[in-house]
Amino acid sequence: MPTTAPAAHAFADVTASDSTLRRFLHGLPGVDAVGLEARAAALGTRSIKTTAKAYAIDLAISMIDLTTLEGADTPGKVRALAAKAVHPDPSDRTSPTTAAVCVYPDMVATAKAALAGSDVKVASVATAFPAGRAALPVKLADTRDAIAAGADEIDMVIDRGAFLAGRYLEVFEQIAAVKAECGDAARLKVIFETGELSTYDNIRRASWIGMLAGADFIKTSTGKVAVNATPANTLLMLEAVRDFRAQTGIQVGVKPAGGIRNTKEAIKFLVLVNETAGADWLHNHWFRFGASSLLNDLLMQRQKLATGHYSGPDYVTVD
Question: Which residues are CB-contacts of 136 (< 8 A; sequence separation ≥ 6)?
Answer without folding.
Answer: 174, 177
